[in-house]
């Protein structure tokens, strides 16, 4: 089937794989080994990758902490901040449509005594600055707002949020897993203190990611041990994974502007032609402030499960792969006010580096056929 689920994960780019391979075999050294060439080479490779990651988001390499992915980065950011500073201020503000890796971590912190405000987005998926401002309190420690939503692709007003948080001396974390590599992200421009990212969303391998920690931000480590990563994340470094993440960041940086253009044209064609060809369909989320390669479409008068099961020529999903063990309507769409039956009959199409025009044409025809058949 045609793969249109790039927001769930991406294939490893062959150039990324090539960069990684030697670090599994001949160059297998431990980056923490200080006494021989094997270790020195691995440490150099990690340092190079750290620069590549930092450059893509406008950070300095000292501010990059490698983790096992964005889930771990989010956990470290939120729990690490609360553990370090929660005795002074314990109020956290986040959004109801966050990924579970932030949402559930906030619930965990509530059980430990944090007070959490969950902002409800408008029906287009966006929160407003005024809404955030009204939620802030003298004891607000941390604001965590995702850069771009994984299910509907909407992009929150991150630069405005960053400016407000910086003014109020509140730590600002953003889960930028879906944004990094797709749109320009700059931690300095946006006044971001903590930022999570993951390699497997940008043509790198699964199981590796990073947390950007702005210089001067205090965190308590969540993994104790050999004090790797400036003591913030102990554990022998995943050198091949880190090299792959670095290469993926470098490639994303060089192709991003072109890809943004190319994919937004393909996405718009897919979206517009589905809306034209199939009656009673709606796009979920704001269509302007949105990732260039994501569209989430609801189909009225079809059974959601039958719809997804009938797509045999395309690989799509109804949202987060991370929670799809449960066939429940998406909590993101519910937060936008989409009724349950329509939320069930919603499909996320996410395009990527290997999507071609012919794929889009075939998808349009297939979606039209399937929906027409099910409605009959
Ligand atoms: N945050 C967002 C917005 C995501 O889309 C994902 C991916 O599913 C994650 C976090 C989790 O990332 P990882 O799979 O690297 O733990």
Fraction of residues in H or I helices: 25-40%
The rounded distance between the terminal residues' Cα atoms is 24 Å
Sheet-strand content, in percent, reads 5-15%
CATH superfamily of the largest domain: Type I PLP-dependent aspartate aminotransferase-like (Major domain)
CA-atom Rg in angstroms: 21 Å
What is the H/E string? EHHEHEHEHEHEEEHEEHEHHEH
Mean pLDDT rating: 96
Tally of domains: 2
Q: How many helical stretches?
A: 11
Please give the CATH class of the largest domain. Alpha Beta
Task: Give the uncertain stretches in residue-range form.
Answer: none
Instruction: Give the structural class.
Output: alpha/beta
**CATH overall fold name of the largest domain:** Aspartate Aminotransferase, domain 2
Can you describe this structure?
It is a single chain. The protein has 376 residues and is an alpha/beta fold. It has 2 domains: 2-8 and 255-375, Aspartate Aminotransferase, domain 1; 14-252, Type I PLP-dependent aspartate aminotransferase-like (Major domain) (Aspartate Aminotransferase, domain 2), CATH 3.40.640. It is built from 11 helices and 12 strands. The strands form 3 sheets. The protein has a 7-stranded mixed sheet with strand order 2-8-7-6-5-3-4, with helices on both faces. A 3-stranded antiparallel sheet has the order 9-10-12. A two-stranded parallel sheet has the order 1-11. Helix 4 (100-111) links the parallel strand 3 and strand 4. It is globular and about 70 Å long. Bound molecules: pyridoxal-5'-phosphate. The site of pyridoxal-5'-phosphate has 13 residues, from helix 3.
